[in-house]
Amino acid sequence: MKIFVCVKQVMSRDAALRVGGDGLWVRDDGVAFETNEPDTFALEEGLRLREKHGGEVVAVTAGPARAASTLREALAKGADRAIHIEDDRFARADTHTTAAALAAAIGREPHDLILTGLQSDDAGFGQTGVILAEMLGLPHATIIMKIEASGGYLRCKRELEAGWFQTVTLPQPALLTIQSGINKVRYATLMGIKRARRKPVRRYASTDLGIDMAPRQEVLRLYQPQQGKQTEFLEGSAREVADQLLSKLRFEARVI
Question: Is the peptide bond before 173 cis (omega within 30 degrees of 0)?
Answer without folding.
Answer: yes
